[in-house]
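Run log, item B.
One chain of 365 residues. Sequence copied directly from the ordering sheet:
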Amino acid sequence: MFHRPRRVQLIAAGLAAVVCGAAATVTATAEAAASGCRVEYAVGSQWSGGFSANVTVTNLGDAVTGWTVRWSFTAGQVVTQAWNATATQSGAVVTAVNAGWNGTLATNGSTSFGFNGSWNNSSNPVPAGFSLNGVTCTGSTTPGTTSPTSPATTPPTATPSTPVPQTPPAGTVRVFWLKPTDVAYDQRYPDGIGGVMREAQSFFRQQLGKTFKLNSPVVEAVNGLHDTNWYINNNCDPNGDRYACVIFNMQGELQQRFGLRNPDSRWLFVAEVSAEEVGKSGGGGQPGWVLLSGHDADGAAGKTEPMPRWYGGMVHELGHAFGLPDATSTDGTCMSASFYGYPNCTFNQTQKNGILNGPYGSFLS
């Protein structure tokens, strides 16, 4: 069901810092692999007793197939929940280890993870330093068997660094991020949306004993044919639901360019567009489709509210895409407003049966 999502008031403005060094060098033996890293740490929201932060780590050295990021808090902060990584804490030292799907980091490759934490309501400083696989992140590299290239200092603006997805087999959930012509490419969007989809995939398996398939890579990044203003205003009733113009203009373009149908027995679709009128965000799900505007895309990229909000929202909308209606009350199920409390929501037995026996139940395995 299409609806305008509820807003969450943020108490404090975001805090961001880039942790790097201009001239520091990490020593290594001549025969060792080149190593080095850069970390960006950003507090996205902060409230009394709690905060949400995002960590982006860039590997400047040789490719790695598993990563561990460590840092130390200096003001008593405590990690309470993490996503896209497994985080543990001993005293002030936090250790974050890759999830099963994001352990590989190519040279100049980046990954992001986030966490919720507690603080003392007085001081919440950026950690003093970070390390990747035991190497202090200084923003430079140690020479090794190969010569590292200089990394970009800002998110990429033109060419995606992820492989181009191939058309997936029937029975797959296809995921699109549509970028208008006046929006710069930002790898955080396909990475973040992919992370949200994997979390939803895991939740479905936990609840149903089976789950849906995703493409590889998960997100098909699409260069839109129009600018942001077009998606907001094309064929739009000025007195109607403004957010609906954005998501249906996106849907129409995707259908035309990729030969998609509504509904489509071959695939189930999740589509997000980086466009919306200020104060008019929204989206929702209908059989076969989840359609979301810029606010949800920003959230998946780690730029707004804590990630559990977006995990719960995706589970809710996928429920609609698999054929479920909204719950009639806030009843603890993810098809009610209880999804805002994710992961503390579930599918009840009636909802499980509705998904398994619904029009896309055969997509689950």
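Observations after the first pass:
- Residues 3-32, 145-162 have pLDDT under 50 and may be disordered.
- The first helix runs from residue 188 to 208.
Flagged for discussion on Thursday.
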